[in-house]
Design a protein that fits this description.
By secondary structure, this protein is of the alpha/beta class. About 40% of the residues lie in helices and about 10% in strands.
Length: about 100
């Protein structure tokens, strides 16, 4: 099923990009941007985060409505506060 079809129906359900990127090289920005432009529902970028900048890139360059990660928090590489402070410094509205 294509991204445009998955986002159809006006239900407002998030289209989820959950790739196999376990290399901490960041979100697949090209894929995230393509999906964001193709569907009319929020897109959540997921998979591949390794730095605080990757979170900002998912929103600013990828056009995602939200970003998520797990491993960087589970293993103590980053804190939620570090990520939110960085995103705020890049002009992204977040609650601290």
């Amino acid at each position: 099923m294509g991204a445009a079809h998955a986002g159809g129906g006006g239900r407002g359900n998030p289209a989820h990009q959950h790739g196999s990127r376990r290399d901490s090289a960041g979100f697949d920005i090209e894929l995230t941007r393509s999906v964001s432009e193709a569907v009319g529902v929020p897109v959540i970028a997921s998979g591949g985060v390794g730095t605080v900048e990757h979170f900002a890139e998912g929103i600013l360059a990828g056009g995602a409505s939200a970003v998520l990660a797990a491993s960087v928090f589970h293993f103590g590489d980053l804190t939620v506060r570090q990520v939110k402070e960085h995103m705020r410094s890049r002009g992204i509205v977040v609650r601290l």
